[in-house]
Specification:
alpha+beta; 3 helices; about 35% helix; globular
Length: about 90
């Protein structure tokens, strides 16, 4: 399954010139990359850090939900991060 969290203020920089962002995450890494391709996201935008994800703009978030991504809360995203850190995710 693929998920998107809520939009929140983002840190603007030369690579991310937007005011807000959310995260595209998935249960499996291959599923995440496949869905990202459907959204026309570049693989170089992938971030492996705390929880493998892609940052999304508001319009890409809307498109992701239309394509079947499940909207999750911040609390649910934090729980996914905890599971991933413990080695039981992705």
């Amino acid at each position: 399954m693929v998920y998107v969290d809520d939009m929140r203020p983002g840190i603007r920089n030369k690579n991310w010139p937007y005011n807000k962002a959310c995260h595209l995450v998935a249960d499996k890494i291959d599923e995440l990359h496949l869905f990202a391709r459907r959204l026309k996201l570049k693989r170089v935008w992938f971030q492996a850090g705390t929880l493998p994800h892609y940052d999304l703009t508001g319009s890409k978030r809307t498109m992701a939900v239309m394509l079947g991504a499940e909207a999750i809360s911040d609390k649910q995203l934090v729980e996914m991060i905890r599971k991933y850190r413990k080695g039981s995710g992705l």
